[in-house]
Amino acid sequence: MSIMLRKMFLTLMMLGVFGITSVFAHAIWMETAATGQKGVSQDVRIFFGEFATEDISPADKWFSDLNQFKLFLHTPDNKQIELKTTVDGTGYKADFTPELDGVYQLVIRKIAKEVSYGYLLDYTSTAVVRVGAANNLPTSPAVLAVHPKASTY
């Protein structure tokens, strides 16, 4: 193999390796305070985009049907409550008012309707809010409680 071909091959290999490592995938995430107070409203913001680069997609341009996600609150007394969300500029917002001391877990799980590059994308996001003297996180993740009974894929 000639030196020119070797250099071209190495250049293409380097571009391939570095090109792959710089590819990002959009995600859905929540922002809320990590601690709350009993009887005081707790705000939750939901975004879609590139978290690492702070590239947030406007709410009306979210991929597929992601804007039809459901936000669940798991309370310290093991109740699951669906929270109402509203469009708020670049994302969505919701709120809840803790009634008990303890650990509250917010959960989003949405399987996108559209297939992307041959994959059915499953978006999941969780956040934990501690209220009062809550010192321990849940021993088993509450996200298991919101998985569908039967998959469509």
| Beta strand % | 35-45%
Structural class: mainly beta
Low-confidence stretches: 15-24, 139-151
- Count of separate DSSP helical elements: 1
General form:
elongated
Sheet having the most strands? 5 strands, antiparallel
Rg estimate, integer Å: 21 Å
Per DSSP E runs of 2 or more residues, the count of β-strands stands at: 10
The share of residues in helices is 10-25%
The helix-strand sequence is HEEEEEEEEEE
- Round the mean pLDDT to the nearest integer and report it: 76
Query: End-to-end span in angstroms?
Result: 47 Å
What can you see in these coordinates?
Strand 9 (102-116) and strand 10 form a beta hairpin. The longest helix is centred in the first third of the chain and has 19 residues, at 3-21. Residues 15-24 and 139-151 have low confidence and may be disordered. The chain is built from one helix and ten strands. By secondary structure, the protein is mainly β.
Topology at a glance:
Elements: H1 3-21, E1 27-31, E2 35-36, E3 42-50, E4 55-56, E5 71-74, E6 80-83, E7 86-88, E8 91-96, E9 102-116, E10 119-131
Parallel strand pairs: 2-10
Antiparallel strand pairs: 1-3, 3-4, 3-8, 5-6, 5-9, 7-8, 9-10
